[in-house]
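Pair request: fold both.
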Amino acid sequence: MRLKFWILLMLGGGILIEILIGINGHRTIRRLVITNNWITHTHVILEKAEQIDTRLTHIDNDLRGHILSGNPYFLADFNRNARELIDQSKDLNDFAKTADQQRRIRELNRKLEHKLMLGRKLFIQAQIENGTTRLDSGRIYLDQTYEIRSLLVQIQEDEQTSLAHRVGESERSANEALLSIIIGTLVAVVIILGAVYLLIRLLQSRTSLNLELQANEKRLREILDAVPAAVAVYDEQGKVYYTNRVTRTLLKQYASFQSYDDLFKSLPVYQFPTGIPYPFEKRPYLKARRGQAAQIDDLELRIGDERTLLLSSAVPIFDLEQNLQYVVSSYVDITDRLLSHSRLNEAKEMAEKAALMKENFLANMSHEIRTPLNSIIGFTNLLETTPLTAEQNEYLKAVNTASRNLLTIVNDILDISKIEAGMLQFEKIPFSIISLVQSIKIMLQPAAYDKQLELDVQLDQKLPPVVLGDPTRLTQILLNLASNAIKFTEKGRIEITIRCKQIEDQQVWVALSVKDSGIGIAADVLPHIFERFRQESSFTTRQYGGSGLGLNIVNSLVDMQGGRIEVESTPGLGSLFTVEIPYEIAEPTSLEDFGSYHSTPYEGLRKISVLVVEDNPMNQKLATAVLGRMGYSAEIAENGVKALKKLREKSYDLILMDIQMPEMDGYETTRQIRNVLHIEVPIVAMTAHALVGEREHCLKVGMNDFISKPFQMSDLYKVVRKQLQVQTPAFVPATTEMNSPMNTMKINLDYLHEVTGGDHESMADLLAVFLEETPVQLKRMSEALQQQDIVEVGKIAHALKSPVQMIGAVEVVPAFIKLQELAAKNGDLFTVQSIVKDVIQRMETLLPMVEEARKEFLPTV
């Protein structure tokens, strides 16, 4: 293509040069003509000047002859020459072109006129006295001739100079024209010869290109024959232009078709899987003819007993003017792919059935495990509020711990199920990180104290008071990490640090770190620590237990909230888990207080009636006991049918609805309540089914809230208060806080009764020792506090804790534990003072009760 361009360019250059030569020749000829005209003009002026000079000689001779002879013939000849001289002078004036020529010729004409006037005067003058006078007059007349001739000489010299210049200019123009013609012709010849050379090369390349095209065409045919797909090319008329080997093999006896129409008239095709003839207008070839590429995958070809499913495609090919030139059709055998697809569908159906079986298994497992757990945890919570011996209390705590550990495993499995399904929901409510962490510290303190581990919690004061997020998931993350730290640490300390890493655009990045001095994690295990069911070794699993799901759930919870988690660990020295989670900053006034509602004033306790729809007798008894302890009256309905009957007869303030029941489940019962009875009473789902989408399903059918079994009494209490929005009796948790009213102090002497075998005298003696030693220890504690000796306060608290536990005054035990913890880390003096003051007040309230008990065991006189 470039060679052709250069050929055209060179030919065009040669033609252009010839045109320029012609233009230059034309201009040169014009210059020569002009120059020659000037030369002719110069010759005419010179000729006229010569004629004037000759006529001057004639009139001078005529005047001298007349003066000397007086012959009248000379006068006639003078007049004739004078007329011709005037005519020649006028002709010369007509040829004057330049200003200098015109000036000199005007001066010449003036002198000629003066000379002729003087000559006529000399011819006609009669008073000339003698010949001398005539001669003098003739001399003046001749002097004027000299002046005129001098002027003519100047004119001639100027014209001779101009003539020489114009002749030279004419010769130069002629030479330049000749040179330009020669050079231009040579250049044009060279260019034309170069164009001829390039043309020859182009023809040679075209020849080699044709040979290469033929070779490429042959190679292309070989390649298309090697393609494992049938390819057929049709021209714009629909005639067959090319078919490859696979096409000929596929069509067998129909391979010698001449056009598309001939082929599919003799070989009909069908639509898979219906088996009807394939609609002509839907075939890819027809769409390609209209300029649109098309593809189908349900074309069935039948040749004899053989059936082949084809993937058919057609693509239009256009020329430079966008006119259809070819249609390329291709056919791929996808019969095996169809079989694979069928197998995949079967495998998919099997996987879906397996997933459904898994979900049903988890649902049943959840219900079957949570139902007894609900009873176990509920009744242990109730038992903790009754008088127990120390041994019974220890056994009860063991049962409670085991049941809660089992509940944790069940919850982990269900959380994994929710995460896998992408249905884990996150709340976005205001909460205080500081309050949440302080609550978690209280929850973790007993476990840490049992292993004599120091639990240190540090809170950054720069943390916003209130943030928006999911406090439940944050609690889950922290409890999981901190519980692991306590579990895998035999001695040392656990450090929990909560700090504000970055605040920007009403968003705070909260960094939470949990550091322990436990067994650590091996370097080869560390990259896989967040994998499901992964623990460091089988020894770890046997010794420490656990499902191996906790860290995987933590990692998923952090990631789903847009955070990140990192771990550093050295075997034998401990581990450091760091979590960073972003939260929106909220206004402090937005923090919801579930502890008070002002919609209904409190003037004595309003009787709250609750309908418990539950089929399990243990759960019925537990719910009745818990609600009764809260101050509510409860009625039981064993299933949905009985619940609807009771609702028709009586109104209730709240309904606790189980989901899985005989005759009518909780979902249908709720629909009947909302759509048939049209009752808007709050309904709280209370179910052991805590799987993916369960909460959303409950709310969708018309329930107001959701609580999983086994439930904590505090959780149930909050849900009930939230739904009723009335002021109700304060709920006292199983573990009495240090700021409980003094009238809640009580003693339980079952342990003393057991260890003394029921000997009242021995029991009285032991109580006497308590009454004697306790005031002394309290006094020492007060003195140590005055001296700001916190370590000593901790020692005295340790000494007092065991006697207090022996007499069953468990309400004050957490205070002694707190004092020991503060002493171990040299805690805040103000906090210690507050706790010591509370302990002394409690113990002073307790001592009279012990004295009364001692008196009862004294022998009567």
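--- second member of the pair ---
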Amino acid sequence: MNKVTNPDLPLPTPRSHDADELAASILEKLIYQVGKDTIVAKPHDWLRAVILAIRDRVTDKWMESTRKTYEAGSKRVYYLSLEFLIGRLLRDAISNLEMIDAINKALAKLDVNLVEIAGLEPDAALGNGGLGRLAACFMESMATVDVPAYGYGIRYVNGLFRQEIADGWQVELPENWLAHGNPWEFHRRESTYEINFGGKVDIIEEGGKEPRYVWKPAERMMAEAYDTPVVGWRAKRVNTLRLWSADAIDPILLDKFNAGDHIGALQESTKAETLTRVLYPADANPAGQELRLRQEYFFSSASLQDILRRHKQQFGDLSNLPEKVAIHLNDTHPAIAVIEMMRLLIDIHDIAFDEAWDMTVKTFAYTNHTLLPEALETWPVPLFERLFPRHMQLIYQINAKILLEARKQKGATDEAIRQISLIDEGGERRVRMGNIAFLGSHSINGVSALHTELMKETVFYNLHRIHPDRINNKTNGITPRRWLKECNPGLTRLIRDVIGDEFLDDTEKLKALDAFAEDSSFQERFDAVKRENKARLSNLIGERLGTRIDPSAIFDIQIKRIHEYKRQLLNIIEAVALYDQIRSHPEMDWVPRVKLFAGKAAPSYHNAKLIIKLANDVARVINSDPAVRGLLKIVFIPNYNVSTAEVMIPAADLSEQISTAGMEASGTGNMKFAINGALTIGTLDGANVEMRDWIGAENMVIFGMTAEEVEAARADGYNPRELIEGSKELSQALSAISSGVFSHDDPGRYADLIGGIYDHDWFMVAADFDAYAAAQRQVDAIWNDRTAWNVKAIRNTARMGWFSSDRAIREYARDIWGAL
């Protein structure tokens, strides 16, 4: 009998949060689960013991949440994401359990330093950037606002690579975050599902009945579940992050092994292990592309099998699936789940095609995160059909239904029909995953107001015309627990001192801080917190890189995935122009500035990796030039991750959000910086538009072309060369870079990179350069009036409360999932 349905079964007493009992629990874990005596225990032993003790207390709340959901028959949300950039979990769990004082007292009794051991916890390498971090924030907020939820993803062994910098170049190394196990997770051996690839489809004719289609796969492997509890603020609810690991059905082929083919005997295990080894395998070659498609299907199929199994176990059949289940696709990566759901409903659960499609659309929802057509994912039809023959049949069947219905609509041109088709017929025939996600979902949302409107006008124009009620906006948010309370305890204490604790439960209560923005005493305290955070970052840089930076300088920070549309290149070129100006005009009163960069480039993205090299080359020259007199420094911090962000963001004076307008869906780094009291220099792109509306344009530094102006310039035959020749600073900076001033060992290294700006400049670097340089001098002027700067910084923190992931999740739950 299921334990949840039997209230007479005795349950263990929840673990105490008392400091003395907590200390005893930690000691017990150290001895009986870690297997160490206190005399010989090392810091990593204590870390594991503390995590296990805290995990017990999280588990008490987890079981309570699970029972409550089951007994109430509540609707569950299932969030499918290829990334969950969760970072370190210990501090998050302690804070959300409200056990900070208790754990500090307990560890003091054991002569253990929490800061020392917490710093040893590895960052889970389960994501790349904003997409994965948003998923992590959403998981925490779903628990906080009491939405029953599972997150589904892949348990990557190495995840995204560890980035090292060798002679200025990015070097990718394995990120062995699981090398010593993961004490937070629970292995669920009973939650194991078969995942299939390739083979053929047999048709079975039965008199008087619809034919049945049976997939006979050529490859089979197993997906095994590992669960990590995700605790919400004040432990109101604990939800589940379920990650899938791949295992071979036959881990060793004994006949081959005994015949001496020891490597061949392990080929099935190797194939399975490869599937969950690395996040985003390089897709510049066919093998990498196939592996990525296999990964997307692997976790989507396992997740759907798990969802349907759980639903039938509780409710008996699938007739009420849309009423009790909401499945959310975080970007196009899990879009194949739409087709897999159809296969499972029709082939396994014997539901008719039309009914299955209706159930699927009512159950699924989809968040789009990009306006870049190439990021919507398409797959060659031959590859898709070879791996998923049954799914390809269903795609054609769904496509026929959709196109026949679309033809009946007024104004359905041939071009419109071609654009909404699930198959791109232009050139190599490809399966369009964005169209599958759109048409297989009842709700499609953008992640900022600007992005949502541009979706309707660009990538989903024709789909929006046939389904005008589906696209809606849900502006992103960040969890204020990790991105204010935990990463910036000094600022959190200051805010609590002046406005009380209400903002801890409702971030919009930060508005009360506005009244103190012009209070000179509060400004001094606010500025002192920022100086402490800058000193901490300076120490980290000194320890990691041996580079000294001055905490009294402006800390001008751009941290994000390295991509041309995010325009790190614009920032570097402006640094070169500023370098020239400082040397040419030493008599001027230059504001000391440290430009800090961090981020990873995709292994096969040549220009992005070249931009990293350029940043390091420019840093080498500028940082060693005595003529600069320390007024400008450039620092690239390797291996950017959540823990590094938690140090950099509270220390930022200036937040660089300078993407080409119309290309950044939302951004969440912009929100994290602003709530920690950094001023934004940025374009009117993504959520910057809404941030301006909430913060006030006077408290940001906005520059550059709008999305409409960018589109018009491209349509009118934009000529970057003319602009470059008309801008003395820009032309000199580009000439210096392309001629080898910063690359004496290889003078032509950047010729093509800079030549691209002259020739086509798709990302409008030349078009926005003069405005950007002027905006940076505006920043200098504000910085020189420290009172004015502090007023603006305080208003940033005070007015950012709306950009909480709690608010975003309540909107999702109310408007899309029907879960509140």
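Observation on the second member. The longest helix spans residues 43-72.
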